[in-house]
Amino acid sequence: MPGSRLVEGERWVIERGLEAGLTQGQIAAVLGRSPATISREVRRGGGPRSSRAGVVLIGRPARYRASKAQRLARRRACRPKPCKVVGELAAVVAGLLEADWSPQQIAAMLPSLYPDDEAMRVSHETIYQSLFVQTRGELRRELTAHLRTGRVARGTKTRSEKIGKLKGMVSISARPAEADDRAVPGHWEGDLLLGGIGKGQIITLVERRSRFVLLAPLNTSRTAADTREQLTAIIARLPLELRKSLTWDQGREMAQHAQFTIATGMPVYFCDPHSPWQRGSNENTNGLLRQYWPKGADLRHVTQDECDAIALRLNTRPRQTLGWKTPAQTLNEGLLATTG
C-alpha cells in the first residue's frame, strides 16, 4: 500500500517488531513500506529515533506504543486546518472565479494586481481546497461551476493515469530474443528525461547492444503527436539495420505508437507497469545525463546541437560493461558484423 496511510494493524506490527529486536528497515520490508515511513511513525509514536544494529541509545529507552500512536494519528487527522481564503482575499478570488478565471490564473495574477499587499497571495491548490473541502474557506461551492471542468469534486490523481490506457500495446514479453540477449544492434530503449514541472524534456534513446545514445529536445510539450513527430525524425536518420525495435514504458506520450511504427517500420514494445529495470540501459543513461541536466533543470531552450554534443561525450566515453570500448566503437563493430 505505498502512498496510503498506516492503519492500526500495521502499528501493532511495528510495536511487536521493535520488541522482537527487528530494525526499522526489516519492519519496513515486512509491511511493504518505505523505511522512512516506519522511522517517521516510530518517532511520532514516542519510539527510539534509530533501531540500526550497533547503535547505542543513551538515557531512558523510549518505547513505541501502537495504541498511543493510533490515538495521535486520529488527533492529527481531525485537527482543524487554518483557513487562508478569507475576507478581502476571498471576495477577490470569488469575483475572478465568476469571471471564469482559473485558480492558476488567479494565483499567478494576484501579485500583479496587488503588488504591495502580501496578504493578497494564495496558491491555486489552496483555492481548490477552499472550493472542494467544506469548512476550508469562504468560497461558495456554486463557484465550482466556473471551473473548466465544472466538476463539484476533485478526482484522484494516481499513476494509473499514466499507464495502462494505450490501445494496441505489444508487451515486452513478445520482443524478439535477439533483443533480450543483446545479440545484434538495432534494438533501442527509450524514455523522456524530464526537467522541472512544465520546463521541457529530452527524448533519450539507447541502443541495447552498444549503449549508443541518441538525444533530441522536446522543449515545451510531450503530447503524443509531438513525441511521435520528434521520434520519427530521429529514427529516420538511422540506417535500416538499426531500426529493429523500440522499448518504452506505458506513458501516454506514446499513444501514437502505431503511427510511429507505420512511418518508421520499427515495432514498439511496452514494459510492464512500474518495471523500470526492463529498460535498464536507458535508466542508467538517464542517470548519467543528470550530470548535464540536473533534476528540476529548465530544458525548454535546449537545442539539438546541445543534445548532439552531450550524446557525443557519452558515445566516446569508454565503458566497463563494453570491455572499455566506447559505445561508438561497439556500434560500429556490430554494424560491420551484421552487414558483412
Automatic annotation (TrEMBL):
GO terms for molecular function: nucleic acid binding; transposase activity. Transmembrane segments: none annotated. GO terms for biological process: DNA integration; DNA recombination; transposition. It comes from the Bacteria. GO terms for cellular component: cytosol. Keywords: DNA recombination. Residues 172-335 form the Integrase catalytic domain. InterPro entries: Integrase_cat-core, IS30-like_HTH, RNaseH-like_sf, RNaseH_sf, Transposase-Integrase, Transposase_IS30-like. PANTHER family: TRANSPOSASE, TRANSPOSASE INSI FOR INSERTION SEQUENCE ELEMENT IS30A-RELATED. This is Integrase.
